[in-house]
Amino acid sequence: MAHQSWSVLDAPNPTYLWTQLLVEELVRNGVHTFFVAPGSRSTPLTVAIARHPEAESVLHVDERGAAFAALGVGRAARGPAAWVTTSGTAVANGLPAAVEASVDGVPMLLLTADRPPELRDTGANQTIDQVKIFGDYVRWQADVPPPSDEVDPAYVLTTADQALHQTLRAPAGPVHVNCMFRKPLEPVETEASVAVPTAVDAWARGTEPYTHYPTPAPSPPGPEVDALAETVRGTEHGLVVAGRLDSAAAADATRRLATHLGWPLIPDLTSRLRRGGREQPEQVPYGDLVLTSAAFREGHPPRAVLQVGGRFASKRLRLFLRDSAPEVWAVVRPDPSRIDPDHRVTHHVEAAVPAAVDALVARLEEGPRGTTWRDDWAGASERAGAVVQAHVQESDALTDPLVAALLTEEMPSEHALVAASSMPVRDLNRHAAPGGTGGPAFANRGASGIDGTVATAAGIAEGRDGPVTLLIGDLALQHDLNGLALLQDRPVVAIVVNNDGGGIFHFLPIREHDEFDPYFTTPHGHDFEHAAALFDLPYHRPDSPSALRSAYAQACRSGESALIEVQTDRATNRQVHDRLEASVERAVEEG
Predict the structure, then answer these.
(1) Nearest to 83 by CA among 157, 135, 31
(2) How far apart are CA 500 and CA 498, in angstroms?
(3) Which of 294, 300, 293, 241 is nearest to 269 (CA)?
(4) Residue-wise over 178-194: b if at least 16 C-beta within 10 A, else e?
(5) Residue 441 CB partners (closer than 8 Å, separation 6+)
(6) How far apart are CA 445 and CA 531, in angstroms?
(7) Are the beta carbons of 401 and 574 closer than 8 angstroms?
(8) What are phi and psi of 306, to 5 degrees?
(9) DSSP β-ladder status, 347-350 and 328-333
(10) Sheet holding 492-498, edge to edge
């Protein structure tokens, strides 16, 4: 975007002085991407962003989608993007993304415009109570008064600095800055003076933030590491479970911990260890499928579990660990909130993963390089993987597990993976190829909603400045069709598995009841060819595994976005999963 000659203090009225100061201070603190939804009351914010030479504005008509795109940037970059919207129900549309960011610890700035106090609770148009509208889901919030020459403009700078500090310090999450504006909203001269105090003038001549906060960092490992080391010392029958890990350093540390202890490592899709990593004897990439065997579960209860990082997707793994009731179940993550839905956790180490691992490794002797326990887990995983690979190689039809395995085999190294909630994240976690060269995997597993998934993928592409492969279901895509508009400038290859409804409900007990169809199957009878055309996206509908490989490779080579639709049958999908798991169970038990 071209910018006119710009100076942060060159403002026609106090309103524009404040908004220009706000945007400049956010940029100085590392916020460069602003997802702007159109509206009138937010005019001063929008114009200040448009005029700033270093602020990148992304326009999106759907406030909910714009908020999820900002969430995606936060996931990929681990730093916040700003979501900018006008007053009224537009603000309420940010709640789903704010909930996801809050529950999953993703930094995000909610920058909303509001009416001045004299218009609140008067019946004025497009005026609702926006104060604390996001409740406890934000880490911090400020209700900024209308700009005035009677208030020191340094207030704007310190508010921006505090907002950025609060969104990044552990636990990271969204912050809400609600900005009241009086008319005129346009950048016109007014009679109000634009006084700039000496301190703000000195700040404007530099490039540093007005208020410096320490770089947010979790507490170093403390005495809890000593206690944990003492409880697991000498334990052979242990498991390392890798949940969501946000950095390569955390993933490498988790791998190093499993190697040091000689314990099996069960990686979640979002751990950066499930796929594309170096192979090691401890790796159990098909851990979810291994646990289909009741005999294996009964014969391999762990005495200790070290869960590193955030939540993991596998319900089967969670129930296995719950029922095993290990003597020690420790969660290691840089966040004070608990991950303990079954109330089995015995230790919580609140520290950065690399630092915690270093402290544990220093306190624990190396485990044996090879044990029956470790080999049992690794061997069972290899046999489960062989069943999945046989299905991929021998099937002439497109199935949900095949799509998950095939995509992760073929994904280019520069692509990140985004998994939609419901079946895609489960299929990828179970069936993804452990090899390959693709980048990290992301999923909205904080609140596990299907909303905003396309926009999240676009935000991840924006945040990492690289291409993304998205695997999504038909209902999730219908829920965020507007998000396809964000793909026109961001390379996202979206693969939609269209089984005409809610395929996951075929795996739930409700399928045995009369109300199952149509209240849970939710058939819609549509394909997505016209949706692709509406948003100028190349469209493919492969009808075989080889055609899918070809279409996906072509889309990736293009360097642009595309929509690939894979049509499957919900009832058949359940049967395919059942057959695969029965084969895995036999292979595990016969090994």
Answers:
(1) 31
(2) 6
(3) 241
(4) bbbbbeebebeeeeeeb
(5) 269, 270, 272, 274, 275, 416, 417, 418, 419, 428
(6) 26
(7) no
(8) -110, 105
(9) parallel
(10) 441-443, 416-419, 468-473, 492-498, 562-567, 539-540
**Other residues' Cβ atoms within 10 Å of the Cβ of residue 63:** 26
Q: What are the b/e assignments for 372-385, b being 16+ CB within 10 Å?
A: ebbebbbebbbbbb
Report the distance separating Cα 281 and Cα 541, nearest Å.
39
Q: What is the DSSP letter of 218?
A: P
The encoded tokens of residue 552 equal: 């996906």
Residues 561, 493 contacting (CB under 8 angstroms): yes
What is the Cα–Cα distance from 449 to 219, expressed in whole angstroms?
31
Determine the straight-line distance between the first and last CA of the chain, rounded to whole angstroms.
Answer: 61
Hey, what are 7's tokens? 């100076």
Chain position carrying tokens 């936060």: 74
Structure tokens at 88: 């009224």
* CA 488 – CA 499 distance, rounded (Å): 26
- Interior CA angle at 395 toward 392 and 400, to 5°? 65
| Type of residue at 338 | R
Provide the token pair at 39. Answer: 């509206």
Q: Select from 82, 389, 40 the least CA-distant residue to 183.
A: 40
Query: Which residues, at least 6 apart from 212, have a Cβ–Cβ distance to it below 8 Å?
Result: 161
Q: Using H for helix, E for strand and C for coil, what is the string for 337-369? A: CCCCCCCCCCEEEECCHHHHHHHHHHHCCCCCC
Residue whose tokens read 């700040």: 203
Q: What is the pLDDT along the chain (591 residues), one digit of tens a residue?
A: 334 457 899 999 999 999 999 999 999 999 999 999 999 999 999 999 999 999 999 999 999 999 999 999 999 999 999 999 999 999 999 999 999 999 999 999 999 999 999 999 899 988 999 999 999 999 999 999 999 999 999 999 999 999 999 999 999 999 999 999 999 999 999 888 888 999 999 999 999 999 999 887 767 788 889 999 999 999 999 999 999 999 999 999 999 999 999 999 999 999 999 987 556 778 999 999 999 999 999 999 999 999 999 999 999 999 999 999 999 999 999 999 999 999 999 999 999 999 999 999 999 999 888 899 999 999 999 999 999 999 999 999 999 999 999 999 999 999 999 999 989 999 999 999 998 777 899 999 999 999 999 999 999 999 999 999 999 999 999 999 999 999 999 999 999 999 988 777 777 787 788 778 887 878 888 999 999 999 999 999 999 999 999 999 999 999 999 999 999 988 888 899 999 999 999 999 997
